[in-house]
Amino acid sequence: MMHSGLDKTQIGRAGELALSLYALITSDGGLEVFSPLTDDDHVDLVAGLRGGLPAIGLQVKTSDAVDAHGLVEARASFPDGQARDDPAFLYAIVLLHAVQIHALWIVPSPDFNRLAYRVRDRGRDVLEFRASPANPDAFARFRIDPMQIGPTLAGRIGAAGSAPGWLLALAGRGISGG
To answer: Which of 76, 99, 127, 178 could form an SS bridge with 33, CB 3.0 to 4.6 Å?
Structure first.
């Protein structure tokens, strides 16, 4: 169920913007979040500590409703064998109600790759996320309070150490303020 007038692309961009806003506010300005100029590397946002280099990349998946079973669904599709498997690459799954993040999961790609249901579709690996916004399931340990997004991302940045080469290459191609 989409919000009146918003299509899937607009809902996705709204989730990216909401996540950026929450990260800025809940980190008390300690995080900088940027949008790559193009989304050809499955990276919707990059983030770093204020004054530092970007250290993590995020693919944001946004839903504005739960399914008939009360679960949030998200899909990530990659060319065969090219799903990114790097602790500095995170999936952010956002359940967005109007302008409020109702539920949020931050899942490192190695865990996402391991826990998501996998299907093959026309030569592509499709990773399917299904999780409850309130009940225990395989992704419950990655569900965070939206008001903790800043500290959570700052912790991930600290754990990532130096920026991986793929992220530096992405930053070199251009990022814009998010």
So the answer is: 178
158 in a structural domain: yes
CATH number of the domain that 29 lies in? 3.40.1350.10
The domain containing residue 34 runs over which residues?
A: 8-70+84-116+132-177
Q: Distance of CA 56 to CAs 46, 70, 80, Å?
A: 6, 30, 23
Helices H / strands E in the chain, number of each: 4, 10
pLDDT digits (tens, 9 = 90+) for 117-161: 999 888 888 999 999 999 999 999 999 999 999 999 999 988 877
Instruction: Please provide the size of the chain in residues.
Output: 178
